Amino acid sequence: MSCLNTSTHSHPATFLLVGIPGLQEAQYWIAFSFFIMYVIAVLGNVIVLFIIYNDLSLHEPMYLFLAMLAVTDLVLSTSTLPKMLSIFWLGSREIGFHACLTQMFFVHTFLSVESGILMVMALDRYVAICCPLRHSSILSVPAIVTMGSLVLARGVLLVSPFSLLVLRLPFCQRCLISHSYCEHMAVVKLVCGDATVSVIYGLFVAFMVGGVDLFVITVSYAMIFQAVLRVPCTDTRLKAFSTCTSHLCVILSLYIPGLFTFLTHRFGHNVPDYVHILAANLYLLMPPMLNPVVYGVKNKQIRERVLHIFNQKGIGAVCACLI
């Protein structure tokens, strides 16, 4: 497609986001499920942040990491979903070139941060279970702040070249993005010049973030399970398995759609576009919705404080049934 409103440079002034290719008629109704997921994500993460911030007894490693995860989830979902809903419900498909690059930066940076925080949370669980006596000394508040800062810095430094490389590429007035948001490879596919450097760099970042983090998470949970199997008490062992399994389900909800999207862009030429885009949307919405439930509400301390807040409003019994 040729853009009517072109800039004086080699890139268009605006892009047009398709939404969900092949489901343009149905995406109006699909948007309602996305909206519900977004509302749950925002409310859940805001409640978790509110409770952790106001309760000094929760200013411990696990809860500080959970607060970082909640902030990341809010930024990640809010950087994409409002624009998605405007496409699905209002038909507002235009997005400025620089606004698109900004969205791409935030999406990929905070996906990297999300992955990094899940990795350090797995390390925290490993230290807490396998080295409980040294947990507070190893994971002190300064150490937690340093780890969070490094995870954020890694995301910013690795993802910034995405936008810089795209900015230098010619688009030859092609501006129709077959996606619901400005995803890196979806934008690079519009380039009419040689985009090899961008593609190779994307592979490098995927390995440095997803590959390294997933390896560390896998090793950490393998050692956790090994330690849990040595616990003599059956009830304690089952409780630990239940907690670890729910955590792994949340982790997989990030990595499985992410891996599917990554592989489909490069090798899945026979995968229908709507399947790919739906998976890419869930990739951004499922973890922010599930994280406050699995890491927050399923946690005894946070659950008790949530019930206490709602009891003051007279609706604690309803929440207790839901939880």
Task: Summarize the structure in words.
The chain is an all-alpha fold and 323 residues long. It contains twelve helices and three strands; from the N terminus they run E-H-H-H-E-H-H-H-E-H-H-H-H-H-H. Strands 2-1-3 form a three-stranded mixed sheet. The chain is globular and about 65 Å long.
Topology, element by element:
Elements: E1 14-17, H1 27-54, H2 61-78, H3 81-90, E2 94-96, H4 97-130, H5 135-138, H6 141-167, E3 176-177, H7 184-188, H8 196-229, H9 234-267, H10 273-297, H11 300-312, H12 316-322
Parallel strand pairs: 1-3
Antiparallel strand pairs: 1-2
> DSSP strand (E) fraction?
under 5%
Helix vs. strand class? mainly alpha
Shape summary: globular
Oligomer: single chain
C-alpha termini separation:
50 Å
Q: Name the poorly predicted regions.
A: 316-322
What series of H and E elements makes up the topology? EHHHEHHHEHHHHHH
Give the rounded overall mean pLDDT. 84
Radius of gyration: 21 Å
Major sheet details: 3 strands, mixed
DSSP helix fraction: over 70%
Q: List the strand order in the largest sheet.
A: 2-1-3
Would you count the extended β strands for me? 3
**With helices defined by DSSP (H or I, 4 residues minimum), what is the helix count?**
12
